Amino acid sequence: MKARLVDHLATFFFWLGAGIILVLLGALVGYLLFKGCKWIDLDFITRAPENLKAGGGVGPQLFNSFYLLVLSMLFTVPLGVGAGIYLAEYAGNGDVNPALALPRSKRASNFLLAALNLSIETLASLPSIVVGLFGLLIFVVSTGWGYSLMAGALALTVLNLPVMVRISLEALHAVPRDLKEASLALGASRWETIWKVVLPAAFPGLVTGGIITAGRVFGEAAALLYTAGMSSPVLDFSDWNPLHPNSPLNPFRPAATLAVHIWKINSEGLIPDVRRVADGSAALLIIVVLVFNLLARWLGSVLYRRMTAS
Amino acid sequence: MQRGTGTMTATRRKQLYREYLGHYLTFACAVLLIVITLAIVVFIALQGLATFFANHINPWQFLFSTRWQPDRPLSEGGPLVGTLAFTVGSIAVSLLAVLIGGPLSVVAAVFMVEIAPGWGRKVLQPAIEILAGIPSVVYGWIGLSLLVPFLRHELHTLGFSLLAGCLVLAVMIIPTVVSLTADSLRSLSRDLKEAAYALGSTRWQTISRVLLPAARPGIMTAIVLGLARAFGEALAVQMVIGNTRNLPASILSPMTTLTSAITMDMGYTIPGTAWNNALWSMSLLLLLITFGFIILIRLVGRGRVYR
Fold first, then answer.
1. What ipTM was predicted for this assembly?
2. Domains of chain B
């Protein structure tokens, strides 16, 4: 009887633990949306911020966040998927019947594999502030660009490459080996198999993972403080020439993102309505993250159905 | 087809060319990972060692002294950059965060895998993913605008404290620990569970005496990764911890961490000064601690699956 009582008690505590996490999440998101949404209107998301007065918006910051996201994904996705392909298809036996695998001499040596895995592990567990400082040394100072969108995008690429590689590896490994073997047995080269069979089959997984990574980029701040900078020049939203210094598209201008802006107004405390701007910005960030999350799920399932014709 | 007969068709040649191109391009992407890692280590180390070689600070003092007066003029004996208070702060805040968040996460992971898989997959899993997606600055802002005032009113203290920092971090590491623990529980063989039930164990006995011990290497890995994440977090902690440069006297007193001190001062110090170089040395310390965590993960993850 005692064992059964203990079992019931344990079950209760497991439900309690799960309940605490759900309540916590509900309370956090609810609080942020409740506090922030009343400040969000067209004026707030388009107007430029104020430096000393109340009433500023977050227009440039919102634009910078999205632009930085696009810039960094331009680097992260090809590099991450490329490294993922190498690790999944070329480095080992390509997850196929040994008769169809690459000869041992063309695969990666054990040393190279160990170095690759250690690098991915290191990059994945580095504190983001350290990545930011590396960015400051290399992309800001050595290149002479100063605080710039490009430096921020490259720092974010360093930060997110290991994530993208892992996502690609997972998506590529999930492709049934029959598909690869059939393609190789029909005489397709390894690259043709990857390009025309494996990548399309892995596409839904790559898209889902990519969007979730994008959500992380959107909210990152520590790696950006000393790379993309904490200020934003006056932007002229009618000038879309990337070479002009005040054009929003110029990748070599400093650019504070929404997440950096929240941190900056709190640490400087110069504007009187910190509370309003921070609440509004935090709610905006949460909304974007939620949208990315839903989008990833929805797009992933739609693509999966389209590709597998089920 | 015979090799070396010189009768290679144009199509075949194109196929081979693409094959090599693909192979080498993806190889280059992979090698880039190694290059970036090496570059980070080398450049951070070069900058970080300047404190000891250019500013002639004693490494022993840097690590084990609590005297932080980086702007003390030369006439009074030069700058003092003892970082012990920062290191202790980092360790205290992340250990406490894991003590609070770790058990809760393991409970939630067991719930997700063993108690209510349906609920777990439909409700808890998405909730964990959203929790993981909330930016760290937003966690910091909630801590600053909700938790700190609450602590100030309820406990009549400053509010900015070790307690506020570790509570914020405890929530932030939940997604990491839950998802990795759940993965390691899911990877256990069904036989284990079925054998335990067949012997007449209750569910709790099965979980506590068979499944959790069997998944221990995975759970330890999850906890250490959570610890590493808490250790490296910068902004959320910086916003709620108060940033006073003393050893914390109690859980309610303000303090600072390595990441927090770097974040605060890097923009305001002049490159080349002992103060600025000390910040780089602290980054180097963070880098070395990261390697320490990786070694720790390899050690705890190696344990036997069955006892």
1. 0.88
2. 12-80 (no CATH), 84-300 (1.10.3720.10)
